[in-house]
Design goal:
Order of helices and strands: HHEHHEEEHEHEEHHEHEEE
Distance between the termini: 64 Å
CATH architecture of the largest domain: 3-Layer(aba) Sandwich
Radius of gyration: 22 Å
Structural class: alpha+beta
Oligomer: single chain
CATH class of the largest domain: Alpha Beta
Mean pLDDT: 80
Strand order of the largest sheet: 5-6-7-10-9-8
Largest sheet: 6 strands, antiparallel
Length: 261
């Protein structure tokens, strides 16, 4: 047990040695919140990587010159966000960073890859199905007409992030499951000569049902972000209708708002 504690302290020292925590004790912002925000920023920017050990609360409080309750509260806030996990006999470990995706016409695969998140894809379903009323309206086809249904589970660092359901015009492009698991749908569209131009998108939220919770490694009733998107090419033709769900603990939309005068 002593050796385990020594390894934990050594790991924490090596991981935190290159980090600087600017804690303002005169600020009205609680110290636990300041520490949590700076740890979260280090995780998001890759200074603290998945698998890194921070040590236990006693080691951290001694190292940072903070009380143990302050450190415990900071750590708990990041555990609640799914960024850290406590491991008995080891200490606190980085799990992953939250995916912050710009609210623009882009591929989740490309965004994850650009952020160094190690994206992987599992094709769950790929077949022709009759279009429902919603799908037909989005793709500009007749209800009951044949469309291509594509369902994929997208993961980052080996952890599920999103379940993606896409409907495409059947003659749009050839979709090979092996290629779909190696890259993003929009990349395959570009390779096929399709120029994506614009999209209409709606973002919402709801609780996970039992099937969704199992797919995304969440508990039933956990918060999910939802997105509905119809994408158009440069001729104005609808080329994709997607209904996606994302783990709120792992995913956020990031966008800038401008003041209209």
């Amino acid at each position: 047990m002593a050796k385990t504690g020594e390894r934990s302290r050594a790991a924490a020292g090596s991981v935190l040695d290159g980090l600087h925590f600017a804690l303002d004790r005169s600020s009205p912002v609680p110290l636990y919140y300041q520490l949590a925000r700076q740890l979260e920023a280090a995780i998001e920017h890759g200074a603290l990587a998945p698998g890194n050990l921070l040590g236990n609360e006693i080691d951290l409080s001694t190292r940072l010159g903070l009380s143990r309750p302050t450190v415990r509260q900071a750590i708990q806030s990041l555990v609640d966000k799914g960024l850290l996990v406590r491991r008995r006999g080891v200490g606190t470990q980085v799990v992953h960073s939250q995916v912050k995706r710009p609210l623009e016409l882009s591929s989740l695969y490309d965004d994850l890859e650009a952020a160094g998140q190690g994206p992987t894809t599992r094709v769950v379903r790929h077949e022709r199905v009759p279009a429902s009323a919603d799908v037909a309206a989005a793709l500009g086809t007749a209800e009951g007409a044949e469309v291509t249904l594509l369902e994929r589970l997208r993961s980052a660092h080996g952890q599920p992030v999103a379940f993606l359901c896409n409907y495409l015009p059947p003659a749009l492009l050839d979709l090979d499951p092996a290629r779909l698991e190696a890259t993003g749908l929009y990349h395959l569209m570009r390779l096929a000569g399709i120029t994506l131009h614009s999209a209409r998108q709606t973002v919402g939220a709801r609780a996970a049902d039992a099937e969704e919770a199992a797919l995304l490694a969440e508990r039933e009733g956990a918060a999910l972000l939802t997105m509905r998107r119809t994408a158009y090419d440069d001729t104005g033709r609808p080329v994709e209708y997607g209904t996606h769900i994302y783990r709120a603990s792992r995913y956020a939309f990031d966008f800038q708002l401008l003041v209209r005068s």
